Amino acid sequence: MNKKAVAWLYEQLPELVARGVLPAEAAERIRGYYGPLPQGLGRWTLLTVFGFVGAVLLGLGIILILGHNWDRLDHVTRLLISLGQLLIAQAAAAFALVRRRDSRAWTEGTAAFLALSVGACIALVGQTYHLVDDFKNFLLVWMLLSLPLVYLLAAEGVAGMYLLGVVVWLASVQQLGTVKYAAWGLMALVLPYYARLLKADRYGNPAVVMSWLLLLCFYGCFALTGDKQLWRISYALLFCATYFAGLLWFAGTGKGWKKPCQVVGTAGAVALAFGLSFKSAWLLRQPLTVSREEVIAVLGLIVLAAGLGVLLAKRPAPRPGLIAALPVAVGAGYVLQAADKSGVYAAVVMSLYLLAVSVGVIRKGVRENRLGLLNAGMLMLAALIMLRFFDFSYSFVARGVAFIVVGAAFLVVNAAMSRRKDGGAK
Amino acid sequence: MTKKSVVVGLFAVLAAIQIAAPLYMAWRWEDILQTGVSYKWRTAPVDPYDALRGRYIDLQFMDARGPAAPGENFKYGQTVYASLGADAASFARITAVSAAKPAGGDYVEARAGYYTAATGLWTVLLPFKRFYMREDLAPLAEKAYQRTAGKDAVVTVRIKGGLGVIEQLYIGDKAIDEYLREQQLAQ
After folding, report:
1. What is the pLDDT of residues A104-135, one digit of tens each?
2. Shortest distance, CA A117 to any CA of chain B (angstroms)
3. Is B135 within 8 Å of A69 when comparing Cβ atoms?
4. Contact status of A17 with chain B (Cβ, < 8 Å)
5. Using the beta-carbon criterion (under 8 Å), do B132 and A69 form an inter-chain contact?
6. Is the CB of A130 less than 8 angstroms away from the CB of B56?
7. pTM score, two decimals?
8. What local confidence, expressed as pLDDT, does residue A38 receive?
9. Who's near A389: CB < 8 A, 6+ residues apart?
């Protein structure tokens, strides 16, 4: 499909219909035949971003002005003002829907403005009647009244606002027992839209941005729901599964930021491993009391990560690398911690794991001649060395011996490799 | 019907719901304000900030405590119903706190606070504790209250069907905005 030609045709359609050249049904059939335009960089233009940002600023400005509290105005006037600004926002969105449906700047901008206007309108009612305990309900009503805009106007910005709202709502209902689990259902409400974006072009900017937003919301929901007595292994499995999912379904040859699953999985795994390489991260202040639900959740994560791993193993490339070993290393840490409560052995295992990952990354960088990868490996190794050098939870002698042993191992390997290389040259 | 007209139709439905939601909320609270029973509470106002709805005064009620209904015990934060009455000076008083809705009389849906063994009373976290004010007046209101040494800040609340809406905040016998304007004129 020639994207530019279809884009041009779509621009012409409203005028052709207006002038009676083409019946509206025919225009619809043309749209149905070609489908939505692939939304690559061409569509996600500066214009759209500016339109969205401008609309958001406008909406936030209205919220602030209404927040001033115009105490001389009576209740009816206040209500009329808030409904008036809502009606204007609706009219703008309706115009975009009917006349500017193919302009991303229009649909994104007006949808964001309308979503914020809905919030401003409900907030003003709350202000007028001095409502208090309604923040979570206010947020929920606001989000649910904005969500349909994601589908009707294909408004990705509103989808982002919605997902952010879900996480904030979840944070606000922490005290309310099982209500918080509804956040998963709320998050799932944007999945059909996400599926539509993936179907259109999974490496297009809209799908990539939505992947990032969903991942962040997913991790927010994961962090804020359920017991976390076994948080070390839970996060290790989840980062691992995220990374696997990225390799399975988003392995295209795009830039790093176009692979959110790989970035989040890798960065999360490395950060977790660094955190767990400290003795204090393994110390238990009180005995573990793991609920049955948490055990089931962890078992579910094991099945998920293992299932994705099996799927990945059936593919020829790429290989998951040492990230896959993280849950094994953390699991070993738990076993060792059972034997030694101080957490020394578990922390040492994590340091060795990080050492292996750093060396693996450096090796890969050299083999594939990728300077970025080489630098990342060197940086990890440097960070590991610095952290352990200044880690005062080990004695000077222990650290000194460990550094000498590892340093000597590096030199021996280096000597062996250069000898082999020389041998090869001869 | 074309796909476009379905989308436009759905948008019209959504727009109607978006308008109806705040209208319903306003109607519900306005109804309480117009037809609810008025109660006076002694209160202590302080001045926080809400980025979405503006500046408000946080009201801390003096007499928001009462005895549990016979045989009842509560968890902190649990939903409870506070039955209301009035004392000799016609200030609101919580006559009983129960987990079930009272069969008759005025009551307000609230959350359980702490139990104090010395008095045998439960504190009740009332749902109306914010009074939104113009951003420049809210801090002045708190200062005005501090000047009166916390003796005569009173808030009137309309109660109906377990819900309550704040009607007005008084310092002495004057509504807060009137009081503040007089103070500003006097300076």
Report:
1. 888 888 999 999 999 888 888 888 887 766 67
2. 10
3. yes
4. no
5. yes
6. yes
7. 0.75
8. 59
9. A399, A403
**Long-range contacts of the stretch A5-10 (C-beta < 8 A, 24+):** A6/A34, A6/A37, A7/A37, A7/A42, A7/A102, A9/A34, A10/A34, A10/A37, A10/A102
Residue A130, chain B, CB below 8 Å: the answer is yes
Residue A122 to residues A72, A84, A221, Cα–Cα distance (Å):
20, 13, 25
What six digits make up the tokens of A331? Answer: 């699991």
Q: CA–CA separation, B68 vs B88, rounded Å? A: 21
| Nearest chain B CA: its distance from A54 CA (Å) | 19
Question: A73 is written with which tokens?
Answer: 């105005």
Same domain for B141 and B164?
yes
Q: Hey, are the CB atoms on A127 and B55 less than 8 Å from each other?
A: no
Whole-angstrom distance, CA of residue B128 vs CA of residue B82? 13
Dump pLDDT digits (tens) for B4-41.
888 889 999 999 999 999 899 889 888 988 898 888 88
Distance from CA of B126 to the nearest CA of A (A): 9
Same domain, B27 and B67: no
In a domain, A358, yes or no: no
Domain range enclosing B159: 36-186
Sign of the CA dihedral with A15 first, then A21, A24, and A26 last: negative
Residue corresponding to tokens 């214009």 = A47
Q: Which of B21, B133, B166 sits opposite A69 (nearest CB)?
A: B133
Whether residue A62 contacts residue A122, with contact meaning beta carbons closer than 8 Å, is answered with no
Same domain, B56 and B9: no
Domain count, chain A: 1
A142 lies in some domain: yes
User: Mean pLDDT for each 10-residue chunk of chain A (426 residues)?
Assistant: 75 85 85 69 63 80 73 79 89 89 83 91 82 78 93 90 93 81 93 91 84 93 86 92 88 76 90 89 76 88 90 76 86 85 85 90 82 83 84 79 82 75 58
Domain count, chain B: 2
CB pairs under 8 A between A and B: 117
